[in-house]
Amino acid sequence: MKLSVRGEYALRALIVLGLDYIEDDSVVRIQEISTRQNIPKRFLEQILNDLKSAGLLESKRGIAGGYRLKRPPEKISLAEVIRHIEGPLAPVSCVSERFYEKCSCPNEDKCAIRSVMKEVRDAIVRILEDVTVAQLCERVKTLQGPQTNPLDYII
Amino acid sequence: MKLSVRGEYALRALIVLGLDYIEDDSVVRIQEISTRQNIPKRFLEQILNDLKSAGLLESKRGIAGGYRLKRPPEKISLAEVIRHIEGPLAPVSCVSERFYEKCSCPNEDKCAIRSVMKEVRDAIVRILEDVTVAQLCERVKTLQGPQTNPLDYII
DNA sequence: TATAATCCCGACTGAAAGCATCAAGAATAA
DNA sequence: TTATTCTTGATGCTTTCAGTCGGGATTATA
Known about the structure:
The structure is a homodimer of 155-residue chains. With 155 residues, the first copy, chain A, is mostly helical. The first copy, chain A, has two domains: 96 residues, Orthogonal Bundle (Arc Repressor Mutant, subunit A), CATH 1.10.10.10; 55 residues, no CATH class. The first copy, chain A, is 50% helix and 5% strand. In chain A, helix 1 crosses helix 2. At the A-B interface, helix 1, helix 5 and helix 6 of A face helix 1, helix 5 and helix 6 of B.
């Protein structure tokens, strides 16, 4: 598993939306996420749309528009996010559960490399399946302390 | 961490050389590894050369030439191999120990994403640092049973 | 010493992925 | 009606990946 810039941006955006998540229908504008997290706006558009079609976000158009989480942040695991943005978590797709692809070795069940990679996959999944967006937001708060706006991107 | 075809080939080649490893100076030709593992010969050349300059292999030129492990297979971890072929094991290089690169976030120590990725990195490294080429060869033997030539590539 | 087999080295290529940017359209609050 | 926002699809640039190629250096053997 390798996290691309795209995936990192997705997580950063979800942190903003997670911290902002309230039970009513408040939304956050792309523009705001973009400036707060220093993400190219046009690129972020793509990514948020992607997360939306993955069922993670919902949006509202027009002048009071923006994005919000479709589910509470405790119900979104990093595994789910990354799978949608990056594809398989496994180091090789012949050990991936949902992105399985046959590899070139003659007998997968007897492939030694595969057996090691399966262990690696399981270790990765165990962590990412466990950590939710809500927990990620918690980490942000404890790590960054009680600042005015813990998210502001500072260069 | 994502294992490319190149990395997979490297491991497969090392399995051949590991199984073949004897204390005298017997060597295995590229050609043989290529046909036994069904790896494009010209491509394999590159890879073996790469492993050589990484200090993992040594070679002999000329008509009785070939490659062999420079160290006993128990002393070569998969982590070392993959790091040389693929680069960082970590999912993002700002949590990599030997391929560290600063990322774009303002304060790395307080980055929540980073803290999760560090856990992922540690889990990956823990496994790959532990498994050696010798153990990989063992797995081949136990998985594939006592065949005449457990390595032959069969389509 | 000639030769054939082997490793050695760097350049090259075509396809795909990654990181965006852009233009124009659709919805909506004020 | 208008300004602001999301929506969609196309496009462009750069880097990586997988693999090929030509020609050179080395060496066992006859």
